[in-house]
Write a structure and sequence with these properties.
Four copies of one chain form a homotetramer. Helices cover 32% and strands 18% of the residues of chain A. Chain A has helices at residues 13-25, 109-122, 146-159, 173-179, 193-199, 216-228, 256-263, 272-276, 279-291, 318-332, and strands at residues 3-7, 29-34, 39-44, 61-66, 85-87, 90-92, 98-102, 126-128, 163-166, 182-185, 206-209, 234-238, 268-270, 296-300.
């Protein structure tokens, strides 16, 4: 059954029949239950194919209770084995832990190539870095744009590590896909459906960050947009949600890892840098995320956080990143617990 | 003073000097206060022109406390008299109440033209209706697109009322601006900075809806993006915020009306349809919004809400809309209280 | 039907039968629906009398969806006509608007008696003032306690107006009830079930403030505690909920007024002082609340807000309160719209 | 400096002087900074001893920005070494991991003694179980009360493990303290200041659960209430906060562990059972919490979760608990990473 329609206490027979008629018309089978206080109509069919908002507007309807999840292609029920996303020679979702590291923004060629080598030496398996950085203030640094993408590609040549970078608008999808190995959809764009459809038509893996106020269901529905547009290579990235807490920048929801593993077959990575906003919290949360079962980490690293053009307070120095990698190796050395 | 930098209890003199040096370099004047427990550095300058995130990453810094608002062109301090936005022969922000009415989505030519005439007769002063409707589910109705825009234009000819419609991606800005009198930025796009900059370059008024989790400051910063890109004709639209309450779709924040009136000079309208999600709550909240000082209302009206392809439960019938307009007239007849 | 139990996709027959057995044992009648993808069990009975949390722990159960509201005595369905609460010669809930005014805390006899006379002259119909004021900091002013209650009683003699005051712990219920006409349960105590049961055994009206993060359903359940303990004289008081907005102290949810009027028969009053935390927003929100249909207002007034020991920023001066009352009279002069 | 008072743009000299006078009167030293756009007044003194809410009500004041934390005795600055709380022969906060296990509620003597032995054998070091269980519905099971306390005491004799149980109202503090080794303050009582003061006068350790919407600062302030009343043996317990996510019962905030470790010297434990509300998420989150640095875990265990009178869905069976303990041992065997 996909949904249950609860009729008002004094709904008339005509109203009850109208609801049934509309549901049948939308392709649903009906189960009618007349109780002492309420009549309930159960509907069985493919909820993912119809928009059922109209039901609540029908006279006599008190409440529509969805029963099954609204997503399909991305659900664990639809596909029970884990999706493994391949990025060049790396695999995300195969039981290992990929480490995506680098600065928030690509600031200059020299600095980026240097930090790329440093994170590689410390054990990073992929590179990150933003070329487009529009932010809450129109007066802030906005990114190097295509110049930044070229630097990323050069860093890939230099290090042999694949490159993840954010694409922020449909017009740039083709451009970014030309340079990057993995396209990232930022948290604020999680429900930018035009952009989701666009990356759904590209043959590159997509990291989909969770929106700051998104529920797991809304987040998986955003992945459904991409997958249903033709691109099944989606990697979910938990990066913290907005709560009343203000000591941390966001509240990193590590329970999303095992929860997503039940709800969907897609791989899950974690970004403790944005998730906490404070570099001192990055290491403990990164290790905790791995123990909780994530498939990868995304870590901000900057040679000199105090000089970073963005996100300095949450960036690790290369030394601190190396320290994290050492603890991580120790944690993983006997295999995951 | 624009901000106060609080140093850690045991910050060294070198650390204190480094912070001062960086602030001076960014164009700020410095006020140093050495207390028994803490040293505090006050900085005076133009915070809107620099990104100061780096400060929190400097060694010895405990906290950076912003003191002045980060927005400028949109602030009441910058321009003390109310901005009045002109839409054809209508004015928003001049003390009157504009009534923007119509269905959530343009569903067909006949239905739209009919409801346009009905809301006009009841007293609406502008028309609304969506041509692009991508939604949380990729399987839902997605709108008539350009066909819908043409219908809107025809309705304007028929009724003489200006037309407000949403633009959802940069690529469509030019197209939408060709047909519409007012461009609307939806709640989910409030921080789509690419889109904000694009409508900032168009010579049409923009209705900027509040993001579901946005603070007033973040919302005004989004307006600042548009205004600083060259378009001062911004109308703020309160449409409810996300809270733990689930009886209503959102929580309509009417205190945003008098609050915005103090913080900014821009006009403020209210959408009680999305703000509550329940048509029975639309009328009391619409009247309350007017008493609280708003410059206009945006109301969803559909001939047959139970047949609406979207937002049926929150749409008024033309009769219910006429009822609201009668009460509103009575409320306004002696002028605003 | 009270609830719907959705079984997991591959639930066994034994599991389905166990759920039915447990529901029957708890006094429910069963409706079984076997669908292609799911089996659903509907249960009809008196959900308010049993705790059904165990259901989600039964093997094979995916989700339990409550269908009917969990409250009963307080519901509009149980009692369709409005409850009118009588406080001495005043009535709350009879269509009029009661105005409860006074300072946050009783600070001294002279000051309290003076402000009581001032608000009476301006049109207040009841007095407010706190005698117990423990606050987030253990180092703040904690109230005059019984001495404060005596001053409130004296103010009642002087003005003839009934007195509302907060009771914060079970041990003081008897004491407060000896002096006050109406007992107030503060927002932070909304789910202090010991205290709710205690005031449920007192024969005095109770103002029940909404908890800062409470949904309407949780709030009404708290009222159900009081009513089911024997005291039907409950007045709901909306005072703002916690949201991400920080310009205001809370977000005043005026849609709670018409929503509660549908869900319950209890009267509803509004506290725009705590609801906004800023005195300049109190007047517009008070007027808006009345238009939205509330039965009363609770307004903080202090002779000299800058000297107030608590809540100064949200207190009106007597002059500002008189200004509000004048606008309110004008608004109400032709009856409610 | 304790706070910064920002004056309005056109504040008069008289207004600026009045603020300074009031601050001096409250025992603060003053630093005045006159900027081009703003005058700022810094104040140095002991903010914890005065309530400064009045400042925002003074004419000419735009904003009061607190600079230092409002808590003192509980702060890491006040006492830099970790507090170790002793419970009989156990220590919480000494670098080890205490495991507090047992059912949500004590349901009967036989069942409780049985599960107590089972969790002991699996490795639990302390017992938990509730004797008072008032809940959101007045019609639910409310606990065995004193009878339950006696059963807890008997379980302690039987197992040799100390006992943690909740106290819900001041009147029962003495009673509960007679039987229990550790008093627990529940999440909903985190700001019940009367209760906090009462347990502050008892010579037993107190587990203080985080309120569902509490910030870290509010939570530590609640601990400050207890400590400043005379009882320094406070153990902080993270148990999840309320967010928009509804797949989990709460969102467990593991970043609170390293954050609290910086802000305060008190030990921190984690309750992944309430924190997630789903038993399948308990094990990964428990292990993650340990890696993130907590001093203990509080785990709900029930012989037959489907029969539990409360919190069944989040309870582990004894077998699942033993599984968790095995993984935990493996994780800790080489010492914490």
């Amino acid at each position: 059954m996909n949904m249950v329609v609860v009729m008002e206490k004094n709904a008339s027979n005509e109203e009850i029949e109208q609801v049934q008629a509309r549901l049948r018309q939308a392709g649903f089978k009906i189960h009618l239950s007349r109780g002492v206080e309420r009549t309930i109509i159960g509907a069985i069919g493919d909820r993912s194919q119809v928009d059922l908002g109209f039901l609540e507007a029908l006279p006599g309807v008190e409440k529509v209770v969805p029963v099954m999840k609204p997503f399909k292609l991305t659900s664990r029920e639809f596909k029970s084995d884990d999706t493994v996303v391949t990025v060049r020679d790396r695999k995300i979702g195969d039981g290992g832990v990929q480490i995506i590291a680098g600065p928030c923004a690509v600031e200059s060629r020299e600095k980026y190539l240097e930090v790329a080598m440093l994170v590689k030496e410390a054990g990073a398996t992929m590179l990150r870095g933003g070329a487009f950085k529009p932010r809450t203030s129109p007066y802030s640094f906005q990114g190097l744009e295509e110049e930044g993408l070229k630097i990323l590609a050069e860093a890939r040549e230099l290090t042999g590590l694949p490159v993840v970078t954010e694409v922020m608008d449909q017009r740039s999808v083709e451009l970014v896909a030309r340079y990057a190995d993995v396209l990232q959809i930022g948290a604020r764009n999680m429900q930018n459906f035009f952009l989701l459809r666009e990356v759904g038509q590209v043959d590159k893996p997509v990291v989909l960050k969770r929106g700051p106020s998104a529920t797991l269901e809304e987040w998986i529905m955003a992945a459904e947009y991409i997958v249903s547009s033709g691109n099944p290579q989606v990697i979910m990235c938990e990066r913290g949600i907005r709560t009343f807490e203000n000591y941390t920048r966001n509240t990193l929801d590590l329970s999303a890892i095992p929860a997503l593993k039940r709800l969907t077959h897609l791989p899950v990575i974690v970004d403790p840098s944005h998730g906490t906003g404070k570099w001192r919290l990055v290491e403990p949360m990164a290790l905790a995320a791995v123990v909780a079962g994530c498939d990868g980490l995304m870590i901000e690293v900057h040679q000199n956080p105090a000089e970073a053009l963005s996100d300095g307070p949450q960036s690790l120095t290369p030394q601190n990143f190396a320290h994290l990698m050492t603890r991580l190796d120790k944690l993983l050395q006997n295999g995951r617990v």
